[in-house]
Amino acid sequence: MKKSPPQPHGANGVSSRAKVLTIDTMNPTVKKVEYAVRGPIVQRAVELERELSQGVKKPFAEVIKANIGDAHAMGQQPITFFRQVLALCSYPELLNDSTFPEDAKSRARRILQSCGGNSLGSYSASQGIESVRQDVARYIERRDGGVPCAPDNIYLTTGASDGIVTMLKLLVCGEGATRTGVMISIPQYPLYSAALAELGAVQVNYYLNEEKCWSLDISELQRSVDEARTHCNPRALCIINPGNPTGQVQSRQCIEDVIRFAAKERLFLMADEVYQDNVYADGCQFHSFKKVLFEMGPEYSSTVELASFHSTSKCYMGECGFRGGYMEIINMDNEVKAQLTKLVSVRLCPPVPGQALMDLVVNPPQPGEPSYDNFIKERTATLSVLAEKAKLTEQVLNTVEGIRCNPVQGAMYSFPRISIPEKAVKEANGQQPDMFYCMRLLEETGICLVPGSGFGQKDGTYHFRMTILPPTDKLKILLDKVKEFHHKFTQKYS
């Protein structure tokens, strides 16, 4: 009888064998996922920070990160009232502390009474705490001039991202030419491309018009959907307004046109409205898709399917780490809605502190309450500084030969176009030229920006995305360094 060959042993004497999970046997859709705002540039920035802390000499004293919309990390101050209530909710013994204002205490008591066991540490209903959903519904009604909103159509989420991915999961089906296509703007926020890659859906690009301040042309939507129908089944249209990464604010007329287009082409509308308080440019105003939809009358308001999203992470709050958000669904089929509720229940519930924070955002201090004056002062100051930084960014970048920056009308980003000499394109050697540019910028100046190729752009054009969030003094340093670097880079490769 033939003996089996001896099994190879590892260093610890245990038999070694091939891994069950390898790069070849893992889920192939995950390998297609890319997320530029935390990609190679940012990983290198973290390494540079570590090297600086270890005393390694660099041509700069610090790394300035303008790669991600993380307001508090960039020095934006939290709203006092929000943090007071959250502190009281987290540690209810503080309710006996006389240093906290009475309106913060009464708000904390109300939130705690809505929690199981009067504790922020308990699970909530899967759709979210009912009293918070009621407050969100009332907020939407006020915002939209009285258009009714049912709390049952509100789903609290783990940031807006969670709601967006959940909706995409419901929409994706089919195989081959029947596979769901989802229309996303180019440039886009990489959450969308990453989620579509992971779900195996078809990304359907439509291009914003850079020459007209990143506006949205219906003719471009038509071209995109017609072309997509040759190889997939376009079922959803995603709009980010105000825009990320492009900082534009869509006009009311544009939103009407988009709604008519969605109705005509039978598309499910997804409105990402997380920057709705971040509007800076004269003549620009935020219009919610829901409000415009209902003002257009029953022909549209009773038929067009819409999911809209908001978050605690942006605007004047900047509370990214709490992962609070909501989505509202309009005209969803009842049987699908039951499936949506089932899907969110699998994850039990969104973080309860994030739900509490969302409640404060939609129901802040009111006139006559002790915290009102300070709340308005802090909110106004934060938004005013952002407006100043939006203008500063546009003005300085437009003084640089070879950089062209559209007005930052809203949100918290600029997406300037940069000219890259042909010699530099060749030296990039297979790397995206704007990635090569941004990596050189990081290594030489310590400025961390994200290449436009991570968001999508028209062939032959190059951009970078930067946030306007750094403190004004650091933003000025950043802009001056970009200006100096671009001049040197262009001279070197001309």
List the defining traits of the structure above.
EC 2.6.1.2, alpha/beta, PyrdxlP-dep_Trfase_small, 494 residues, Aspartate Aminotransferase, domain 1, seven-stranded mixed sheet, Aspartate Aminotransferase, domain 2, 2 domains, single chain, three-stranded antiparallel sheet, globular
How would you sum up this structure, described in words?
- It comes from Takifugu rubripes.
- It catalyses: L-alanine + 2-oxoglutarate = pyruvate + L-glutamate.
- InterPro entries: ALAT1/2-like, Aminotransferase_I/II_large, PyrdxlP-dep_Trfase, PyrdxlP-dep_Trfase_major, PyrdxlP-dep_Trfase_small.
- Residues 100-481 form the Aminotransferase class I/classII large domain.
- Keywords: Aminotransferase, Pyridoxal phosphate, Transferase.
- The protein has 494 residues and is an alpha/beta fold.
- It folds into two domains: 28-75 and 376-493, Aspartate Aminotransferase, domain 1 (Alpha-Beta Complex); 119-362, Aspartate Aminotransferase, domain 2 (3-Layer(aba) Sandwich), CATH 3.40.640.
- It is built from 17 helices and 14 strands.
- The protein has helices spanning 28-31, 40-53, 80-90, 102-113, 130-143, 159-171, 190-199, 218-228, 252-265, 289-295, 298-301, 334-345, 352-362, 372-397, 422-427, 433-445, 472-493; strands spanning 64-65, 154-158, 180-186, 202-207, 233-240, 268-272, 306-311, 324-330, 403-404, 413-414, 417-418, 447-448, 450-451, 464-467.
- The strands form four sheets. A seven-stranded mixed beta sheet has the order 2-8-7-6-5-3-4, with helices on both faces. Strands 10-14-13 form a three-stranded antiparallel beta sheet. It has a two-stranded parallel ribbon with strand order 1-12.
- Strand 3 (180-186), helix 7 (190-199) and strand 4 form a beta-alpha-beta unit.
- It is globular.
- The model has no long low-confidence stretch (mean pLDDT 89).
